[in-house]
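TA notes, week 10

Several of you asked for a full example with nothing omitted. So below is the full record: structure tokens for the whole chain, then the designed sequence directly under it. When grading your own attempts, check the secondary structure regions first.
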């Protein structure tokens, strides 16, 4: 059965962006056919849809579908990467088409970048393209930008602000350091991406100067004054989060390798099907356990149980779609709790919340 992903519509969405158009673009991306995908997008523009609407009401939701289809095990990792690459090339073709180029910049410069370790660059690319359409000069640095290089680029180009993208919650501690480094250099930061929470709670907790839920929101926030705001004084990231004084985050991150190793060692006894795993399956299991530890650490960093429980329920769905019983997560959480440092009440509280969430699901 095919999951339906209805086209998003609203007062500003042209009627030409129908569900049928979404399905045509999805089919082209799934097949890795960039010529067909470009044809769908160009046809939509020629039929009356604005470039910004095509970017945000056609390309963006179909990109979200790519991730959803992978999570549901209906496409492979290779297909997911191929579809994303085609989507990026289609965006570039649209941006450079002689008839659809953005106006000359007249509003100053914005730097758009992903935090160090973040490889999901397409959301940031959408922000960059929309800002160009709104008259900004944009320096788009792409995925996985090391913080020292980002700061050096800021000093060299002197933008009005930095639009910082982070999709994976496990990168929030790094994002905090990036925010602090940019502000210490004298540049305000607009945060965006799923990692910062659906309401921007983590962006606020980590001291960002602003937050936006999507590309349109980013353009509106920057246009209304963030880009001209005064930078904050230099500070250390830990000063924003007094709960880190308990050192739990530090102890868990330092013990990461041991936690993963001890949890894996106990899983064969607690989850007998693992004894028949191939080497590849064992490697994947090790990666899954490492992700659990990383998200536990991130939840400790921002002191938010929901960050961890949300990751667990998503992981349970992904495992179930691949024929791995979600109950395999229960012994993982038990073993991880047993391996934690002795003084880790917040970490144990978060693990308990995770078990409760899995039981409810």
């Amino acid at each position: 059965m095919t999951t339906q992903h209805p086209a998003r519509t609203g007062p500003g969405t042209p009627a030409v962006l129908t569900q049928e158009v979404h399905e045509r673009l999805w089919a082209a991306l799934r097949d890795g056919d960039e010529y067909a995908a470009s044809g769908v997008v160009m046809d939509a523009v020629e039929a009356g849809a604005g470039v910004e609407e095509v970017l945000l009401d056609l390309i963006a939701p179909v990109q979200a579908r790519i991730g959803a289809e992978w999570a549901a095990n209906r496409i492979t990792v290779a297909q997911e990467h191929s579809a994303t690459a085609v989507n990026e090339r289609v965006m570039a073709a649209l941006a450079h088409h002689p008839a659809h180029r953005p106006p000359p910049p007249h509003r100053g410069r914005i730097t758009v970048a992903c935090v160090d370790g973040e490889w999901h660059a397409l959301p940031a690319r959408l922000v960059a393209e929309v800002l160009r359409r709104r008259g900004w000069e944009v320096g788009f640095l792409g995925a996985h930008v090391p913080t020292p290089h980002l700061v050096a680029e800021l000093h060299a180009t002197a933008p009005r602000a930095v639009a910082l993208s982070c999709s994976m919650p496990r990168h929030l501690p790094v994002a905090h350091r990036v925010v602090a480094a940019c502000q210490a250099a004298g540049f305000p930061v607009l945060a965006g991406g799923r990692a910062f929470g659906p309401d921007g709670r983590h962006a606020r907790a980590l001291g960002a100067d602003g937050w936006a839920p999507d590309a349109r929101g980013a353009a509106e926030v920057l246009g209304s004054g963030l880009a001209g705001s005064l930078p904050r004084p230099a500070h250390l990231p830990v000063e924003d989060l007094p709960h880190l004084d308990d050192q739990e985050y530090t102890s868990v991150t330092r013990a990461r390798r041991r936690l993963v190793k001890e949890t894996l060692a106990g899983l064969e006894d607690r989850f007998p099907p693992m004894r028949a795993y191939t080497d590849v399956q064992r490697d994947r299991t090790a990666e899954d356990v490492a992700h659990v530890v990383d998200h536990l650490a991130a939840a400790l960093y921002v002191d938010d149980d929901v960050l961890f429980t949300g990751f667990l329920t998503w992981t349970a769905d992904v495992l179930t779609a691949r024929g791995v019983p979600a109950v395999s997560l229960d012994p993982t959480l038990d073993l991880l709790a047993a391996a934690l440092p002795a003084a880790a009440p917040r970490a144990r509280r978060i693990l308990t919340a995770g078990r409760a969430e899995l039981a409810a699901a």
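Residues 279-302 form the longest helix (24 residues). Use that as a sanity check on your answer.
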